[in-house]
Write a sequence for this structure.
């Protein structure tokens, strides 16, 4: 078995600890409260299904595709290409960006910076958003990237959920992610912890999760 590089897995362990912290209940939450009064119990039984569904959803969970993914009409943009602003009215809005030429010696980094404001602007209004992108930041075309990854990010403000997943994430050519931490834990015979974390990343350089969002009345009305 190849040795595990401490620098490679340190950030992966940090990500793993972050997920564990989010999943573990707080000290106050672990204390069992007194049973609710009958009136309170009755009120809970007549609460709306939508409220019950969200209250039962975990605050953090493994990455999953959004429910609207099958309806996406994808808009694809190349290096430094700016999307038209009318896309901000699309719902769902699904875009894919190439960001592999964030290179300092050929102007790629500057083209990236010029394009980003419009890419950000079109996200402001949509209730359902899904972005895929492909990153690589390097000094020259032939250099090992400082950082690189493939990303997926989405939100559904009406459904009050968001998700993000990074794959092939690397720093200076070495992969970093929950998947790396899982491999290191298995190599050290911490299989139970590795199994718990593997839902958030199994492959080298992989980390993914979903989180709960606060209510958005405007998006709730649009549906």
């Amino acid at each position: 078995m190849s040795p595990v590089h401490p620098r490679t897995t340190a950030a992966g362990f940090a990500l793993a600890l972050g997920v564990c912290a989010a999943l573990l209940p707080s000290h106050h939450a672990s204390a069992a409260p007194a049973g609710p009064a009958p009136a309170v119990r009755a009120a809970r039984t007549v609460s709306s299904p939508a409220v019950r569904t969200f209250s039962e959803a975990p605050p953090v969970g493994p990455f999953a595709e959004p429910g609207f993914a099958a309806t996406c009409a994808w808009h694809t943009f190349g290096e430094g290409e700016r999307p038209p602003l009318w896309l901000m009215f699309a719902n769902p809005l699904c875009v894919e960006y190439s960001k592999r030429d964030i290179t300092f010696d050929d102007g790629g980094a500057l083209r990236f910076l010029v394009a980003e404001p419009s890419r950000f602007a079109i996200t402001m209004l949509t209730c359902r958003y899904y972005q895929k992108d492909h990153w690589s930041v390097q000094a020259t075309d032939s250099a090992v990237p400082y950082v690189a990854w493939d990303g997926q990010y989405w939100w559904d403000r009406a459904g009050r959920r968001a998700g993000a997943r990074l794959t092939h994430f690397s720093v200076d050519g070495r992969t970093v992610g929950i998947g790396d931490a899982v491999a290191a834990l298995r190599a050290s015979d911490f299989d139970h912890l590795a199994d718990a974390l593997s839902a958030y990343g199994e492959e080298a350089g992989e980390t993914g999760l979903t989180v709960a969002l606060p209510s958005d009345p405007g998006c709730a009305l649009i549906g």
Remarks:
- The helical segments are 6-23, 27-30, 38-45, 49-56, 108-121, 178-187, 191-197, 217-222.
- Confidence is low (pLDDT under 50) at residues 6-14, 19-55.
